[in-house]
Amino acid sequence: MTDQPSAPVTGGDPLAELDEFSIELPSWAFGNAGTRFKVFSSPGVPRDPFEKVSDAAQVHRLTGLAPRVSLHIPWDLVPDERGGFDALAAHAREEGVSIGAINSNLFQDDDYRLGSLAHPEERVRDKAIAHHAQCVDVMRATGSRDLKLWLPDGTNYPGQDSLRARQDRLADSLQQVYALLDPGMRLLIEYKLFEPSFYSMDIPDWGTSLTHCLALGDQAVVVLDTGHHAPSTNIEFIVMMLLRAKRLGAFDFNSRFYADDDLMVGAADPFQLFRILHEIVEQDAHLPSSEVSFMLDQCHNIEPKVRGQLRSVLNVEEGLAKALLVDEPALRAAHEAGDVLGANDVLMDAYRTDVRERLADRREARGLPRDPVAAFTASGYLERVSAERVGGTQASWGA
Amino acid sequence: MTDQPSAPVTGGDPLAELDEFSIELPSWAFGNAGTRFKVFSSPGVPRDPFEKVSDAAQVHRLTGLAPRVSLHIPWDLVPDERGGFDALAAHAREEGVSIGAINSNLFQDDDYRLGSLAHPEERVRDKAIAHHAQCVDVMRATGSRDLKLWLPDGTNYPGQDSLRARQDRLADSLQQVYALLDPGMRLLIEYKLFEPSFYSMDIPDWGTSLTHCLALGDQAVVVLDTGHHAPSTNIEFIVMMLLRAKRLGAFDFNSRFYADDDLMVGAADPFQLFRILHEIVEQDAHLPSSEVSFMLDQCHNIEPKVRGQLRSVLNVEEGLAKALLVDEPALRAAHEAGDVLGANDVLMDAYRTDVRERLADRREARGLPRDPVAAFTASGYLERVSAERVGGTQASWGA
Amino acid sequence: MTDQPSAPVTGGDPLAELDEFSIELPSWAFGNAGTRFKVFSSPGVPRDPFEKVSDAAQVHRLTGLAPRVSLHIPWDLVPDERGGFDALAAHAREEGVSIGAINSNLFQDDDYRLGSLAHPEERVRDKAIAHHAQCVDVMRATGSRDLKLWLPDGTNYPGQDSLRARQDRLADSLQQVYALLDPGMRLLIEYKLFEPSFYSMDIPDWGTSLTHCLALGDQAVVVLDTGHHAPSTNIEFIVMMLLRAKRLGAFDFNSRFYADDDLMVGAADPFQLFRILHEIVEQDAHLPSSEVSFMLDQCHNIEPKVRGQLRSVLNVEEGLAKALLVDEPALRAAHEAGDVLGANDVLMDAYRTDVRERLADRREARGLPRDPVAAFTASGYLERVSAERVGGTQASWGA
Amino acid sequence: MTDQPSAPVTGGDPLAELDEFSIELPSWAFGNAGTRFKVFSSPGVPRDPFEKVSDAAQVHRLTGLAPRVSLHIPWDLVPDERGGFDALAAHAREEGVSIGAINSNLFQDDDYRLGSLAHPEERVRDKAIAHHAQCVDVMRATGSRDLKLWLPDGTNYPGQDSLRARQDRLADSLQQVYALLDPGMRLLIEYKLFEPSFYSMDIPDWGTSLTHCLALGDQAVVVLDTGHHAPSTNIEFIVMMLLRAKRLGAFDFNSRFYADDDLMVGAADPFQLFRILHEIVEQDAHLPSSEVSFMLDQCHNIEPKVRGQLRSVLNVEEGLAKALLVDEPALRAAHEAGDVLGANDVLMDAYRTDVRERLADRREARGLPRDPVAAFTASGYLERVSAERVGGTQASWGA
C-alpha cells in the first residue's frame, strides 16, 4: 500500500480494480458449526479437507473471487496414507484454487484449559509453541505465506491469574513462534474482545495486538475480525489506523448483531461493511500490493454452507464496488469546504447505488454466471455431494 | 408478597429473615458444560440424575440454603429400570433435598432447527407442545410446582421469517401449554436477548414475557435470568417492575461481563447483585410468601462444579444479608429530604459491611460448618466420587 | 391498523401507498441544539415559533411529506400580544402546514432537579401535572390530537430514591394527566434507557411504557424513539410487538452510533431503518388508518438544520419505498419452505434496489422538485432568512 | 515504577503505603455542570479560580489525600488585576494545596465546530496549537508538570471528513504541541470513545493514544478516563497494558452505568474500581515513583459538589486499601496451582473486607477527622460560602 490516496482512474471504469481483488475462504466454514446449544448437521457436509477444498472451489468457480482456501490445524491435517499436504495442494490446484493461511488451533486440547501461549505452565506453553512449528511445516508444504494465530487464552474470574504475568509469558511465547518463520512468511495476530474467556482475553483489542506486532518485527501484522469488538466500536477507524501503521495484515469478515455472532458478512449491517471498504479504498488496500488478505470467518449453523459462502463473497464484492464508486474529488471538495451534509451525501450516493447489474455484466464478460447463487442451485452440486458423501464423519466444529 | 414495604423487625436481628430463604440448584450445573469451542470434562462428574442430585445435596448439607434441585427434560429422564421419577424423588428425600422446577428442553432436537413453539410448521409446534405434556407428567411424579420454559426460538437473518407470524404462533402454542397445567402449577416464562439466535429472539425481553403472561392468566409468571439483558440494562429496575405487577416468578442467577457468560452469581458485579436483592427486600420478595423462586443457572467449564455452586449460594446469601442490613428508616428519611448523597450513603453502608463473620456465626448456631467451602474440600467428597464414578458417560451440555 | 397482513396491490404500483404517508417535524429541530459541551449557533436560526413553523413548512413545500409541526411547551408558547396560538395556527395554515403533537417539557425547571411526575414531593408533582393541563389547553387551541410525554425523571445513584415509590407516584400522576384528555385525544408515553439520569430512568423501556398505558386506558399509547435503547436492541421487534398490542402511537425518528446521538434518521444504519419500516408495512401501519404518527426527533448541532430535516424526511421516504417493494408472496413462500437464505434474499433484494429515480419521478408528477435538497439550496431561502432574522435571541436547546 | 512486582512489606502494615498516595482534584468539579438538558445551580458555588481552589482545599484538609488542584484554560485564567497565576499559586499554598495539571480546552470556541488540532483548516489548527503555548505558559507560572489534552475532535457523519487525513493532521499538530514542552514536562493524551462527536472521534481508544505517544517521545503519556470506553471493556486490562508499556500517565476517575455519565468514582461499580487499583498495586503504580497521576473527572449536577468530591476521594482510598490487603503470596500460590476458584477467593477476601474502621484509625492518627463527610457537614463551610458568595456569576460548565 502507498502513503498517497488512490488517484482516480481517469476516464476508466472504477470497478476495473475489482479484477485484482480476491477473498480467502476458510475450510471450516464448509463443515458443521453452531452454538454451545446445538450444532445442526446437513446433508453433503465434507468429511475431510479434500471435500472442503472442493466445496470452496465451487465458490471460486461461480464468482471468480475466492481463489484461496485457508486451513486449520489440526482439523485439516492430511494423513500420509492420503498423500499428505502435497496431495491436498495438488487437489486444490486441480480444483482451481490454492492453499491460503494456516490457522493454529489453540482451544481444543485438554491441556489448554487455562490457556496455551500464555498458560502458567512452561510445559503447556512449549506444547503450544511446538504446535506452531507444525503449522509452519504445513505452510512450507502448501506454499502458504501466512501463519494465523487467534489466541483464545484468557481468564473467567478476576484474580484467576495475573494479567501482567500472562502478558509477559505471551510475549515470550510469541517471540519463539515468530522465530519459526521463514523470510517472507507473516505472523497474523488476531484479537477478540471475549469468548471463550469471559473476564479477560489476553489479546482483547487492536492495541494489544499491535503492541505485540511492534515488539516482534515487520513480519507480524494484525488480523481484524469484524465480530470481535465491543458494541458501538467504530471498526473502520481501526482499519484506518492499522493501515496508517502499515500493520493491517488481514480481515476475518463476518457480521453480528450482538456478540461474535459469525453471521454472513454484510448481513447485519451492510452500511458498516461499505464504510470499512471505503477506508480500504482510501488507502489502496484493496489492491494486491497492500498485502492485506481478505478472509471470511463465519459459522453457518442453520443456513446452507456453500450458498452462505457465495452470498458472503458477493456481499463483499458489492460493498467494494460501491466504495470504488465514491466520487473522490467531490468528497475532497466537500471536506475542504467543511460541508458536513454535502460530504455525507457524496458517500451515500455511492452506497445507495444499485451495482448488481454492473457486477453481473462484469461476471458475464468474464465467462461467469450472472447470478452465482442461482447457478449454484441449478448446478445440482449440493444434491450430488449429498448423495456421494455418505458414511464417515462430517467435519464439525470440533473436528 | 404484599403491597406494603417490609416492616423493620423491631429489636430483632435483621438477618433472622435469612432463615426462611432458599435457593434452588439446577441439576445440569453438576454436569460438564462450556462454550462452543470446547467443553472440558472433570473427574467425578455425575453420569445420571441420581448422581447430580447427590452432588446438589452436598451444597445444601454444607450451607442449609439449597433444599431443591430442578431437573431438565429430557436430560434427566429416569428410565423405568432405574425406578422412574419415584425412585429419583425418593433418592432426593434420602439426600435431604426435593425436586424443584421442571425445565423443558427445546433446543437439541434436529426438528427445532428453525424453532419449536414458534416454528413455521404445525407438526413441530405440536411436538414441542407434547414435550411440555411430558414435563407436566414429570411434575406430577415429582411433586414439582413449576414448569420452566426458556424459548430458544428466533431467527438469524432479517427476513428469515415473519416476526409477527412467529409471535402469533407462539401465543397459540403457549395457550396450549398453559392448558396442560394443574391448578397450583405455574408456567415460568424466561426471556433472553440473544443466543442461540442472532437476529431476533421470539421472547427477547421482559416486556414480551410479561405480555404473554398477561394473555395466559395468573399461573403464568416471568423468569429473570441475570445474564439475559443488553449491556447497561438496569436489572433491579425490572425486578421492581415485575414485583409491582405481581409477575416475578423466578430468578436464574449467574453473572456476566459481556454476554450470557454464565459465570458464578456475584462474581462479575457483586454490587449489582446487592442492588437486585435490595429491591427484593424492599418488596418482601425474599420471604416464602412471595413465591419468588431463586434459582442458579450457571455454566461451570473451567471451575470445579460443586465448589462453584457452593460459592454461588454463599454469594447470594451474603448479598441478601447486606440488603437486610440496609437502615430502611434512615433511607426513607433521606428520600424525603431529597438528600441524594445521604441516601446513597445509607445504601452503601450496608454494602460495605463485612457480613462474613455474622453469617459464619449463624451457620455454626445451626450446626453447619462456619466455612462451607473449606468443609467441602476437607470432606474428601470430590476425591471419593472421582474414584467411584468411573465408566459410563459423564453428563454434559448435550446429554 | 388491521389484524391482517396487507394485501398486495394487484397490478398497481406498490409505491402508490406513499401518497398517504406523512412525517411530523418538531419545531425545536430548527433551533440551536447540541451537546453538554457546546451548542453552536448558525445564521438564520428562528427566534420564535412563527419562524420555526416557516422553516418547517419549507420541508413540506419541497417534499410533500411533512404537513405537520409539533410544538414544545413552554418553548413554543405564543404571548397574547402576538395573537396567541390562534395566530400561530393561522400562520401554519398560511404556510401550508398544521400543528401536530404538543410536547410537555419536564426538564428545565429548577423544581425538577429530582424529578417531575415521579418527584418525592407532591407539590412538584402537582406542578408537573398542571403543566400538562396547560398543554391540553394548547391542544384545544391548535386542534392537536396528541399530548406527548417524555419523562426525564430518574436517579443518578443507587439508593437515591425508592424505585418502587417513584413508580407508584408516577402511576398516580399519569392517571391525573390522563384524566385531563378530551375524548379523541391521545397520551403518547415515551421511554428512554438513560440520560439525563444515569442510574435509573422511571420509564426506561417499552415494557414500562406499555405497563402504564395498559393501566391508563385506550387513549394511552407508546412512543418509540429509535435512539432510546441499549446497544444491540432489536428495535423492529419492539415495533412489531407494540403494533400487535395495538399500542404503538408514534415514532421519534433519529439515528445513533453510540447513545442517544440524535443524528439524522437513516444516517447511522439505513438497513435498520428499512427493517423497522418493513415491520410497519407488514402490519399496514404506514397507512393513516393505523394512527401511528411518524415524527422526527433530532438534534442538529454542526449540520444546517432545514437541510438536515430535508435529508431525514427523504431517508424515511426512501426506506419506506424499499419496504413497499418487498415481494411479499415470495417472502411468504420462502418462510413456508423454511428457506433461510432465500427469505433473506427476498428482503435484501428490496433493500438493494435504488429507488431514488422512482421517487424523483413521483415528486415531479406531483409538481415537486426532483431533488428537494438541491432545490432548497437553489432557493436562497437560508440566505434570505439569515439576512432577515437579525437581532433577538435565536431559539435554542434551552429556550 | 519498576518491572518487578511489589515485594510484600514484611511484618508491616500493608496500608502504610497509603501515606504516599495522593489524588488530584479538578477545579471545574466545584462549578456547576450537568447534561445537555439542564445545568442545575447550587448555593455557594465558586465564581472564580480562587474560590474553586478554596473548595478543593477543604477536601484535602479533611482527608489528607488531595493536595493538588488541576486547572482548565481558559476557564481558570486569572486576570492581571487579580494578580495573575502568581496570586493563584500563592492562594493555593495558603490553602495548603498546589496547582496540578493544566488542561487545554478545545471545545468551546466557535472556530472548533469541525475540530481543533485535527481541523481541516490550518488556521484553526494553528489557533489550537497556540492555545497550548498559552497553557505551557500557565504551567511555568504555576509550576505544573503536566499538560493535559483531551481532544474532542471527530465527526458526526460517515464521509463528513477523511478519517486518515484527520489523523495525519492531528499527528502533525501534536508534534508542534510536544515541541512546546520544557524538559521534565509531560504531555498527557486522553482518549474517549464518543461525545461530543457521534460517528468518529479522532482519539477514541488507548491504541490511538498510545500510537501518538510512541511517535512523539518519552514525555508523551496516556490518560485513562474510566468513563471513556465501550460497554463491557475490561479497563483494568488496559491499565496493565499501559503500565507494561510505561505509558500510563494519569487517570481521570469517575463512574458510569451507561456512557460517560461522570458520576462519582466508585459509585457505579466499586468492584471494578478495586480491580483497577489491584492492577495498579501489582505494578507498584500507586507509589509516587510511578509518576502516575490519579485525578478525578466528574460532573456533579444534582449532588453537592464538595461533598461529592469528598466521597469520591474516600472511595478511591478505600479501593486502594483493599487492593493493598490482597494476600499476594497466597494469590501467586493459587496461580501456580491453577486453582481458579482459590485464586478468585484470595482476591475477593480483600474486596469483602470492611476497611472503614482501619482507615478512620489512620486518619485519627494523622490528626484528621475519622469521618470527613460528617466533619465537612458539621463545619458549616457550605453555609458560610453560600452566604459569602453572593453576586457575580457562578462558575459553570461553559465558563
Descriptive notes:
The structure is a homotetramer of 399-residue chains. With 399 residues, chain A is α/β, with parallel strands linked by helices. The first copy, chain A, has a single domain (20-319), classed as Divalent-metal-dependent TIM barrel enzymes (TIM Barrel), CATH 3.20.20. Helices cover 42% and strands 12% of the residues of chain A. Chain A has helices at 49-63, 84-95, 122-142, 163-178, 206-216, 235-244, 270-282, 305-324, 328-337, 340-352, 356-365, 372-379, 381-388; strands spanning 24-26, 68-73, 98-104, 146-150, 154-155, 186-190, 200-201, 220-225, 248-253, 293-296. An eight-stranded parallel sheet of chain A has the order 1-2-3-4-6-8-9-10. A two-stranded antiparallel ribbon of chain A has the order 5-7. In chain A, helix 6 links the parallel strand 8 and strand 9. In chain A, helix 6 packs parallel to helix 7 and helix 7 (270-282) packs across helix 8. Chain A is globular, with a radius of gyration of 21 Å. The two termini of chain A are 37 Å apart. Chains in contact: A-B, A-C, A-D, B-C, B-D, C-D. At the A-D interface, helix 4, strand 7, helix 5, helix 6 and helix 7 of A face helix 4, strand 7, helix 5, helix 6 and helix 7 of D.
Beta content of chain A comes to: 5-15%
Question: Helix count of chain A, per DSSP?
Answer: 13
Got a strand count of chain A?
Answer: 10
- Roughly how many Å apart are the termini of chain A? 37 Å
What's the CATH class label of chain A?
Answer: Alpha Beta
User: What is the approximate shape of chain A?
Assistant: globular
> For the record, what is the CATH homologous superfamily label of chain A?
Divalent-metal-dependent TIM barrel enzymes
**Numbering strands along the chain, what is their spatial order in the largest sheet of chain A?**
1-2-3-4-6-8-9-10
How helix-rich are the residues of chain A, as a percent range?
40-55%
Would you list the SSEs of chain A in sequence order as H and E?
EHEHEHEEHEEHEHEHEHHHHHH
**Per CATH, which architecture of chain A?**
Alpha-Beta Barrel
Low-confidence stretches of chain A: 1-9
Quaternary class: homotetramer
Q: What is the CATH T-level topology of chain A?
A: TIM Barrel
Profile the largest sheet of chain A. 8 strands, parallel
Class from secondary-structure proportions of chain A: alpha/beta
If you average the pLDDT of chain A, what whole number results? Answer: 95
Question: Gyration radius of chain A, to the nearest Å?
Answer: 21 Å
- When the domains of chain A are counted, the total is 1
Largest interface: B-C, 61 and 61 residues
